[in-house]
Amino acid sequence: MKIGYACLTVGVSQTNLKTCMLKNASKEKLLELISHNLMVLSHMIDYNTQNHIKLFRISSDIIPFASSPVNTLFWWDIFRTQLRKLGEKIQNNTMRVSMHPGQYTVLNSTNPEVVEKAIRDLKYHAQFLDSLGLSPEHKIILHVGGVYQDKSKAMDRFIENYRALNFSIKKRLVIENDDKSYTIEDVLEIGHLLHIPVVFDNLHHAVNPPGTNTSAFEWIDACSKTWHRKDGDQKIHYSQQNPEKRPGSHSESISIQPFMDFYKQLNRKDIDIMLEVKDKNISAVNCIQAILKLDNL
């Protein structure tokens, strides 16, 4: 089992990613930013290794404006040496990484321009992971998208557009239930049809459950059947509700006792848990230490 966190490392020097405004994204500026961000990623990997964190989501902003026409750099070639060294460091430390395109990457949009932009963005994410020399178990997580007044047609559009994707994307793409539109039951339907691994998100499920009496742990077991050897161990997302914000908002930190109750009920070691929480690595370290303490009792 690997426990990890997403994108940003809190309270650690030399781990601040940089970007710029679109109007300032000159070739020289982008080269500077990419060089800096790859150095930062190296520091993040070092920190994670030192703290037994074996699961990490790389920020989509690692290559600024990567899927935008403003970035015309062949960054995968220019930074080939640095990228390969980063990939070797990840593999040598048995770390598993992933990426998660943002809310504007919508593959099932009714607008062809939005779909085209989503495909460009997915190509970038796949190319970045490929440039690290990583196997397909290092994944790209995506939500199904919008409903557009007709969920059945929206699901059909996702299926059609997925089938047209390049294999370089398909070999990494996994799909996740969300807190508004697509329940875990919906996502599993697509996952089984297209043979896509499905990520179960516990907080999204709590906010947007299907109309059944099936427990979260039964859904996790159902999702496990979509993961195969080439995909690596099953991944799930775990978070806790921020009591001061709208349903589905992540907490500032992970409360250990509820997490440990969840961990015990999983009763499995062949599963990786991505924590989605505001304090990032701090909660990851706390959860890892709690598990190690329990396992050593």
Write a brief caption for the model.
By secondary structure, the protein is α/β, with parallel strands linked by helices. Helices cover 44% and strands 11% of the residues. The protein has one domain (3-295): Divalent-metal-dependent TIM barrel enzymes (TIM Barrel, Alpha-Beta Barrel), CATH 3.20.20.150.
Mean model confidence by pLDDT: 96
Helix percentage: 40-55%
CATH-defined architecture? Alpha-Beta Barrel
Q: Give the uncertain stretches in residue-range form.
A: none
Largest sheet: 8 strands, parallel
Number of helices: 11
Overall domain count: 1
Annotated CATH homologous superfamily: Divalent-metal-dependent TIM barrel enzymes
For this structure, the CATH topology is TIM Barrel
Quick one: CATH class? Alpha Beta
Element-level helix/strand string = EHEHHEHEHHEHEHHEHEH
Number of strands: 8
Radius of gyration: 19 Å
Protein model, in words:
Helix 1 packs parallel to helix 3. Helix content is 44%, strand content 11%. The protein has an eight-stranded parallel sheet. The chain is globular, with a radius of gyration of 19 Å. It is an alpha/beta fold and 297 residues long. It contains eleven helices and eight strands. It starts with a strand and ends with a helix. The protein has one domain: TIM Barrel (Alpha-Beta Barrel), CATH 3.20.20.150. The mean pLDDT is 96.
